[in-house]
Amino acid sequence: MKTVHSTLLLLLFVPLAEPAPPPQLDTHSNYEYATDNYEETKFSQDYEDEYLDGKTPEEKETLTPDEKSLQLQKDESVTLPPKKETDEMPTCLLCVCLSGSVYCEEVDIDAVPPLPKESAYLYARFNKIKKLTAKDFADMPNLRRLDFTGNLIEDIEDNTFSQLPLLEELSLAENQLLRLPVLPPKLTLFNAKHNKIKSKGIKANTFKKLNKLSFLYLDHNDLESVPPNLPESLRVIHLQFNSITSITDDTFCKANDTRYIRDRVEEIRLEGNPIILGKHPNSFICLKRLPVGSYI
């Protein structure tokens, strides 16, 4: 009997001695943190979670590495923002574009570069520009100041500046000009000193309607006479070192109106011209100050 009882007890305890099954591993946390390829492994897992989302497990498993790469490129091409226009970049790489101002000084350009549409000020001094055309400033309504000092400009199309309604300051100093183009109506400063401009190169109405013009610099040219119809708004008139030989009572004043006073003029310079100002006393009767020049 004792032998039977011992056998039964042994049979009851045998199942309890079987080894426990191996633990299940979490595949998503099975990264080798101590290895260099951790970031690559993590990126691969994130890619599978994000870019293969919505596919069945069978579809995910059937994608080869090359197919995964193509899928990633396809998805990235969809999510990238649209490419911006870069037509203005060459100018702003050659020059300096800053807050509506374009600085193209001493960069050896021979033509006006394409300007950003919002440009208000262009400084293109000391280059090799020979000609200005209306196309150079087409659709540029915000321009307020243009400076082409020290170029090689010989010719300017008549309508080059007339379509710039906001242009206030224009410098064409130190060029090779023989004549002046049509000027915009809101100019306050015009500088064309050190050119080759003759009196026949200035039309009779060039300055007549410029009712805001305050500063006029035409010194060091080849003018034989003072330009006609100078506006009442002028404060400074520089005509020194030309070829002016005579003036009349109507040059600055009004011969038929002795009460007329040109009270805004602060300075007229006529030195360096072959004219004796003392021979024309009635020509300055309307001025508060006599012009600078020779009176003897």
Description:
- It is a single chain.
- With 296 residues, the chain is α/β, with parallel strands linked by helices.
- It has a domain at 99-296: Leucine-rich repeat, LRR (right-handed beta-alpha superhelix) (Alpha-Beta Horseshoe), CATH 3.80.10.10.
- The chain has 5 helices and 11 strands.
- It has a 9-stranded mixed sheet with strand order 1-2-3-5-7-8-9-10-11.
- A hairpin with a 2-residue loop joins strand 1 (96-98) and strand 2 (101-103).
- It is elongated.
- Belongs to the small leucine-rich proteoglycan (SLRP) family. SLRP class III subfamily.
- Induces bone formation in conjunction with TGF-beta-1 or TGF-beta-2.
- Residues 56-86 are annotated as: Disordered.
- It is found in: Secreted, Extracellular space, Extracellular matrix.
- GO terms for molecular function: growth factor activity.
